Amino acid sequence: xxxxxxxxxxxxxxxxxxxxxxxxxxxxxxxxxxxxxxxxxxxxxxxxxxxxxxxxxxxxxxxxxxxxxxxxxxxxxxxxxxxxxxxxxxxxxxxxxxxxxxxxxxxxxxxxxxxxxxxxxxxxxxxxxxxxxxxxxxxxxxxxxxxxxxxxxxxxxxxxxxxxxxxxxxxxxxxxxxxxxxxxxxxxxxxxxxxxxxxxxxxxxxxxxxxxxxxxxxxxxxxxxxxxxxxxxxxx
Length: 236
Prior knowledge:
By secondary structure, this protein is α/β, with parallel strands linked by helices. The protein has 2 domains: 16-96, no CATH class; 107-216, 3-Layer(aba) Sandwich (Glutaredoxin). It contains 10 helices and 5 strands. The chain has helices at residues 3-11, 17-31, 39-48, 55-63, 68-75, 78-97, 112-121, 140-153, 206-215, 227-235; strands spanning 107-109, 127-133, 158-163, 180-185, 188-193. Strands 1-3-2-4-5 form a 5-stranded mixed sheet, sandwiched between helices. The two termini are 51 Å apart.
């Protein structure tokens, strides 16, 4: 077996029952504050993760049964570490399943050409939400504010807005049809909601717009919160 293949075997995350245990063991060791451990435990930790062992010894060490001393060491404060480990595994899975670009904020389109370009040239996996508005029309400003919030919650969705006059289709999108939400993916129109605020309460918020779009299955799953956010919630 080549050295490259051996290295690959040592770095890959295992998915079988034994592999999950070994992956958890490595994560636990890496997460522990070794400097504050008692000398005896620190020495045990050194023996468990010594980099001086040969590849064969390392592979055998990962696949052996856990000793009583190791178990006592690893089980301490497991709850907090287990949450971090679970979050890391979920994030790794989410990253593998997430494709396409990410965006920041709502994009302002200044012309009909820019409108067509964002629809036709965006990545085929990207959902594009376009708000057609007009200053002074009831609900347009509120919807713009809602999309600002949703853009932070859904970075893989491209949220855009364009003034009806700038779009070159002011006749088609007259005041009575505003605000309008158009949803595209891979150049295909998935949602066409004229005067969309009629589907919402008079006073509406970002969560209401989110629920409305989700009722048609137009939004992807939200990004996972970072580990730091989870840790802060645990502290609270």
